[in-house]
Specification:
The complex is a heterodimer of chains A (213) and B (124). With 213 residues, chain A is of the alpha/beta class. Helix content of chain A is 31%, strand content 28%. Chain A has six helices and seven strands; from the N terminus they run ααβαβαββαβαββ. Chain A starts with 5 loop residues before the first helix and ends with a strand. By secondary structure, chain B is of the alpha+beta class. Chain B is 27% helix and 20% strand. Chain B has helices at 3-6, 39-45, 51-60, 79-91; strands spanning 24-32, 92-100, 107-111, 114-115. Chain B is globular. The chains are: A alpha/beta (213), B alpha+beta (124). The A-B interface holds A 1, 52, 54, 75-76, 78, 82, 84, 87-88, 90-91, 94, 100-101, 103-108, 111, 114-117, 120 and B 1-2, 4-5, 7-10, 12-13, 21, 33-36, 38, 40-41, 45, 48, 50, 90-91, 112-119, 124. Chain B: Keywords: Cytoplasm, Nucleus. Chain B: One of its GO terms (biological process) is tRNA methylation. Chain B: Its main location: cytoplasm.
């Protein structure tokens, strides 16, 4: 499969349906198509971590990153998501876009440690809940699971303010992390408590190499 | 749900369950979705597969003529078998059915292509 161009990828991703009614407790912010496209494109063009690989997406929501991975030629992408409405939308997106090679499993990401998925994925990618609301530290719990499930690399987004802590924890968990890019992550006014129309937060795009202590 | 995904699913998160694998698969509706054959990938995923689950899936999907009951040696040199494994693992999409825990009998439904592995709080 010829590699899809970045702009084409972003165009396709703009057709991915997002959360109908985002749930605040699950921090359901959709990954913007532009960011998802840039992330997936970087993984493939710089590290060849997508094409022909087994890819996992933790907290996949409606499937933005899973679908980006599939469009770039992943052999199989498996998304894991807790929320029933999100998995229905995920499936709707996959059927509508007629995508092969992509599955969604409704499961609690935190229960995947110790399962047969450990070390099974070549690449794990995710846009985890940042853990800023009622679930402090949730992104770190997702990261720990991701590092256990991947055998080569993990890609993730985390708030820039937690950078040095993440670096340290990743090392403890047997992975070397590096910040690929600093993003201004635009969160639309999805929830009532956002007074401004939209709010930018500073987010790091990370790559973690497994087994590089 | 592809049968490659099925190969990784367990019920071990249930309290008291020791192995929880392989789950007993029932298919009531499936479809075939064509996907590009990549022999290198099929060969690479083989060590991660449990042949008893693969053969069990082949039985349920009515493809036992394609898949031997015992894992043959040197599968990598057998392109025809790799192709049949590709079909079984990546092209059969289970739309409706269920997965049953071999130890507790707990049923996980597969609805509209999505296996629901969520447990209630009192089960973990």
């Amino acid at each position: 499969m010829a590699r899809m161009k970045l702009r084409k990828l972003e165009e396709y991703l703009q057709g991915v349906d997002g959360f109908e009614q985002p749930k605040i407790l699950l921090e359901q912010y959709p990954t913007p198509p532009h960011i998802a496209a840039c992330m997936a494109h970087h993984m493939q063009s710089q590290h060849e971590d997508i094409e022909g690989k087994l890819v996992g997406d933790l907290g996949c929501g409606c499937g933005m990153l899973s679908i980006a991975s599939t469009l770039l030629g992943a052999q199989l992408t498996v998304g894991f998501e807790l929320d029933g409405d999100a998995v229905d939308t995920f499936r709707g997106n996959v059927v509508e876009m007629e995508l092969p090679n992509v599955d969604c499993v409704r499961a609690d990401v935190l229960q995947l440690i110790g399962s047969k998925w450990e070390k099974s994925f070549d690449t794990v990618l995710m846009n985890p809940p940042f853990g800023t609301k009622h679930n402090a530290g949730m992104d770190m719990r997702f990261l720990e699971v991701a590092l256990r499930l991947a055998n080569t690399a993990v890609y993730s987004l985390h708030k820039t303010s937690t950078r040095s802590y993440i670096q340290k924890k990743a090392l403890e968990w047997g992975a070397r992390g590096s910040v690929v890019a600093e993003l201004r992550y635009n969160i639309d006014a999805s929830y009532k408590f956002h007074k401004q129309k939209s709010k930018d937060i500073e987010v790091d795009f990370w790559r973690f190499e497994i087994g590089q202590e | 749900m592809k049968l490659s995904t099925y190969n990784f699913l367990t019920s071990m998160a249930i309290k008291g369950v020791k192995v929880g694998f392989p789950l007993k698969l029932t298919i009531s509706k499936k479809e075939v979705v064509e996907s590009e054959f990549n022999p290198t990938f099929v060969e690479r995923i083989l060590p991660k597969l449990d042949w008893s689950a693969v053969y069990g899936a082949a039985q349920v999907a009515e493809l036992t003529e394609d898949i031997p009951s015992v894992q043959p040696e040197n599968i990598g040199e057998n392109e025809l078998l790799l192709q049949k494994l590709h079909h079984l693992l990546f092209e059969i999409d289970v739309l409706e059915g269920q997965l049953e825990c071999p130890e507790t009998g707990r049923v996980f439904p597969i609805t509209d292509g999505i296996p629901n592995m969520l447990l209630n709080e009192d089960e973990v």
